[in-house]
């Protein structure tokens, strides 16, 4: 619902600014509730009411999980709410419900990439999911992942599946995952003593909200509490299709724009213009639906059958995923990665060097070269700072490894190979001089 902004609280002015921002968020959430309820076009945060209406009308349900007041997805959301001509006639054929928090959310139904701040579910009164919509692979830039046209196409696809329900019930069962260990977010160990099943509109509603990303955080926290090595399914959740070299058109349901040379998608034979009709037995309505299939695939490798249309002719492709294929994905954009940076990098935020910067530093283009964009100054994100790391240092070796090309690779290496208390050696380039430092891997 609301993403937390990290604000330094060292002086009274900063405290006042923080309090004002919190009040502003509180006002935005309450005014949004009032506006939507007065308009009456969307059911506000009441899924049981949506089920009731769906059973009465026979309509499918569209549920929008909308982070408030996240500015990153306002444009797309406002275009939907404000009756965009491509979407308005389709919305009329659905029972419409807006969910602004995950408190009390049924996690057996709502399984999705929780680093999204705008996610759409299309399903029926039986709980059969027709499709998902809502994808991003950048912290702020949504271009290339979602569009209103794509949203309209996904809704059209859902209506077609709804028309043929029950004959497609077996296929639709593949769009739901196994029962989760915890049925609702507030039951996770790190959340159960802090949150309730409903928002506190009589008190501080913003502080009572469980954000989408906190579900992913809770899964990681659970693995750490149990002293488990973080599973790749949790470290690399909902891999983006481009991680396997498949670039899909955000304006269509599942149409290939381009294919990365030498990628798994290329080896499978996918070509630009291919329309994916089925993937692993499922009808994908969006990029998010393709992510759902990929997320269910084994990290140890899998073969996924694809039925495609190419130039009006039916074709088939077998997508072969090699072991550790998920590691091709990039998690650096995810808000949940900030917690992993604290654990694996001591609070560093690393970015790729440009080709020009590499050339100026006389660094091999194939070796590790990551600039320290930010280093945490305050506990518990200050371990790298205390170890001597400085902003604009260039990391050129990590625990003796010089082949970790992305920040994602460095984080994944530390989490997979180190235990709390172990130390990691780092070689940094600063002002043309190398510095060797040691960083403690934390719990």
Question: How would you sum up this structure in a few lines?
Answer:
The protein is α+β, with helices and mostly antiparallel strands and 443 residues long.
Task: Describe the protein's topology.
Elements: H1 12-39, E1 43-44, H2 47-57, E2 61-66, H3 74-81, H4 88-91, E3 95-99, E4 118-123, E5 129-133, H5 148-163, H6 169-172, H7 212-225, H8 232-235, E6 246-248, E7 256-259, H9 264-268, E8 275-279, H10 287-296, E9 302-310, E10 313-321, H11 337-345, E11 348-352, H12 355-361, E12 370-375, H13 383-387, E13 394-398, H14 407-417, E14 423-430, E15 433-440
Parallel strand pairs: 1-3, 2-3
Antiparallel strand pairs: 2-4, 4-5, 6-7, 8-9, 9-10, 11-12, 12-13, 13-14, 14-15
Helix pairs in contact: 11-14
Describe the structure.
- 31% of the residues lie in helices and 19% in strands.
- It is of the alpha+beta class.
- The strands form four sheets. Strands 1-3-2-4-5 form a five-stranded mixed sheet, with helices on both faces. It has a five-stranded antiparallel sheet with strand order 11-12-13-14-15.
- A hairpin with a 2-residue loop joins strand 14 (423-430) and strand 15 (433-440).
- The longest helix has 28 residues, at 12-39.
- It is globular and about 70 Å long.
- The model is unreliable at 1-23 (pLDDT under 50).
């Amino acid at each position: 619902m609301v993403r937390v902004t990290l604000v330094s609280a060292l002086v009274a002015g900063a405290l006042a600014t923080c309090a004002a921002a919190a009040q502003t968020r509180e006002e935005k959430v309450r005014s949004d509730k009032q506006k939507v309820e007065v308009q009456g076009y969307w059911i506000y945060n009441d899924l049981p009411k949506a089920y009731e209406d769906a059973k009465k009308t026979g309509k499918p349900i569209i549920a929008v999980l909308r982070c408030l007041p996240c500015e990153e997805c306002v444009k797309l959301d406002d275009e939907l709410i404000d009756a965009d001509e491509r979407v308005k006639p389709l919305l009329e054929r659905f029972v419409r419900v807006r969910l602004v928090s995950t408190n009390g959310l049924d996690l057996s139904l709502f399984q999705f990439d929780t680093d999204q701040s705008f996610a759409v579910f299309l399903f029926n009164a039986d709980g059969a999911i027709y499709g998902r919509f809502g994808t991003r692979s950048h912290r702020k830039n949504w271009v290339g992942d979602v569009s209103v046209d794509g949203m309209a196409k996904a809704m059209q696809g859902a209506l077609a599946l709804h028309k043929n329900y029950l004959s497609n019930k077996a296929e639709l069962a593949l769009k739901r995952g196994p029962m989760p260990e915890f049925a609702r977010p507030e039951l996770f160990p790190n959340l159960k003593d802090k949150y309730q099943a409903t928002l506190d509109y009589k008190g501080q509603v913003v502080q009572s909200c469980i954000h989408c990303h906190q579900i992913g955080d809770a899964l990681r926290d659970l693995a750490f509490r149990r002293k488990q090595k973080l599973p790749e399914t949790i470290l690399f959740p909902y891999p983006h299709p481009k991680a396997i070299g498949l670039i899909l058109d955000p304006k269509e349901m599942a149409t290939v724009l381009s294919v990365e040379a030498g990628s798994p998608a290329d080896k499978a034979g996918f070509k630009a213009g291919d329309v994916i009709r089925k993937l692993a037995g499922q009808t994908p309505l969006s990029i998010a639906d393709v992510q759902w299939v990929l997320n269910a695939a084994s990290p140890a490798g899998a073969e996924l059958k694809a039925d495609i249309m190419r130039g009006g002719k039916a074709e088939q492709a077998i997508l072969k995923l090699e072991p550790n294929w998920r590691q091709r994905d990039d998690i650096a954009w995810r808000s949940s990665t900030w917690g992993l940076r604290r654990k694996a990098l001591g609070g560093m935020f690393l970015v790729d060097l440009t080709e020009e910067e590499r050339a100026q530093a006389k660094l091999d283009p194939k070796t590790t070269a990551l600039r320290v964009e930010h280093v945490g100054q305050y506990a518990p994100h200050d371990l790298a700072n205390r170890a001597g790391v400085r902003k604009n240092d260039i990391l050129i070796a990590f625990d003796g490894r010089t082949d970790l090309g992305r920040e994602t690779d460095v984080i994944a290496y530390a989490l997979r190979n180190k235990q709390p208390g172990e130390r990691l050696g780092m070689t940094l380039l600063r002002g043309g001089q190398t510095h060797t430092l040691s960083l403690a891997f934390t719990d």
